[in-house]
Design goal:
Blueprint (H helix, E strand, L loop, with lengths): L1 H29 L8 E6 L4 E6 L4 E7 L5 E7 L2 E6 L4 E6 L4 E7 L8 E4 L2 E6 L2 E6 L4 E7 L5 E7 L2 E6 L4 E6 L4 E7 L5 E7 L2 E6 L4 E6 L4 E7 L5 E7 L2 E6 L5 E6 L4 E7 L5 E7 L6 H18 L3
Antiparallel strand pairs: 1-2, 1-24, 2-3, 4-5, 5-6, 6-7, 8-9, 9-10, 10-11, 12-13, 13-14, 14-15, 16-17, 17-18, 18-19, 20-21, 21-22, 22-23
Length: 308
């Protein structure tokens, strides 16, 4: 009888654990699908601020960071933001929560309009050169690439840098070691400013004619007018299959488009003050449900093996 009682208790305990597990599974399965909550950070050149918004267009904090000196370029590495201040010639570092890490992490620059991050290194447009620094602010090579024309946007992909040249209407390709791959990889652009990379594709802002062009990283044209009719586009970033574009001047907006060129929301965010740089930080999907289910399953197994 005692042996039978032990067996029954064990089965009942295991059953309770299994029932709890099943209830969690049912609850998680019943949860509605929720879109990824990625976050947009954008620089407002006129007001000297960084604003934070969701990719759905909701305002998180319109003045997350303030007191900047005409900020343009912005890049993200982990939980830190790196921002170029054009009038003070500095790169400031801030957390994605808005705290100042070092407002003058890098100094002595000239119009640091564009910033790209690769690992623990920053590549910065510095007047007619590309300079390289660590994310801790140490100088790696202040003259990594020299003799360039008036440049604005920079993007990194697979150890290559892609740089936009406003005056010549071109995009140049260089290695992160400073070697020239093709100084005129893409030609015939119309005031190229921002640039973003997604896989083997480049998306380029043509400010003068209000378009976004798409090209391969090998320089082939996919669609020179993928998106058109934009009001003063400057910055661009990619998140998944979506493009987010800043429109400066009187527009003061961020528009959202697919990488296929379809308009999602041309005024996703409005009322901005000279938006220029833009970056999107992916928010990791929660693993809470899996952790809870795993914990309940483990509890059921432990209870099933518990000696009496």
């Amino acid at each position: 009888m005692r042996s039978l009682r032990r067996t029954l208790i064990t089965v009942l305990d295991a059953g309770r654990g299994l029932a709890a597990l099943l209830s969690i599974v049912v609850a998680v399965s019943a949860m509605p699908a929720v879109a990824r909550g990625d976050t947009i950070f954008e620089t407002n050149n006129t007001s000297g601020t960084i604003g934070e918004y969701t990719t759905s267009g909701a305002t998180v904090n319109a003045s997350l960071v303030s007191g900047l000196a005409q900020p343009d370029g912005i890049a993200v590495s982990g939980s830190n933001l790196f921002v170029g201040n054009t009038t003070s010639g500095t790169i400031g570092e801030y957390t994605t929560s808005g705290a100042t890490v070092n407002g003058s992490l890098i100094t002595g620059l000239v119009n640091p309009d564009g910033i790209a991050v690769s690992g623990s290194n920053l590549f910065v447009i510095n007047s007619f050169t590309i300079s390289e620094y660590t994310t801790s602010g140490a100088t790696v090579n202040a003259s990594l690439i020299t003799g360039l024309g008036a440049s604005f946007g920079i993007a990194e992909s697979r150890s290559d840098l892609f740089v936009t040249f406003v005056g010549t209407g071109t995009i140049g390709e260089y290695t992160t070691s400073g070697a020239t791959v093709n100084a005129s990889l893409i030609k015939g652009l119309n005031g190229p400013y921002g640039i973003a990379v997604s896989g083997s594709d480049l998306f380029v802002v043509n400010n003068f004619n209000g378009t976004i062009g798409e090209y391969t990283t090998s320089g082939a044209t996919v669609n020179a007018s993928l998106i058109s009719g934009l009001p003063d586009p400057i910055g661009i970033t990619v998140s998944g299959s979506d493009l987010f574009v800043t429109n400066a001047g009187s527009a003061g907006t961020i528009g959202e488009y697919t990488t296929s060129g379809a308009t999602v929301n041309a005024s996703l965010v409005s009322g901005l003050s000279g938006p220029v740089g833009i970056a999107v930080v992916p928010v990791p999907e929660s693993a809470t449900g899996l952790l809870v289910m795993g914990g309940v399953l483990g509890l059921a197994v432990v209870r099933g093996r518990r000696p009496f």
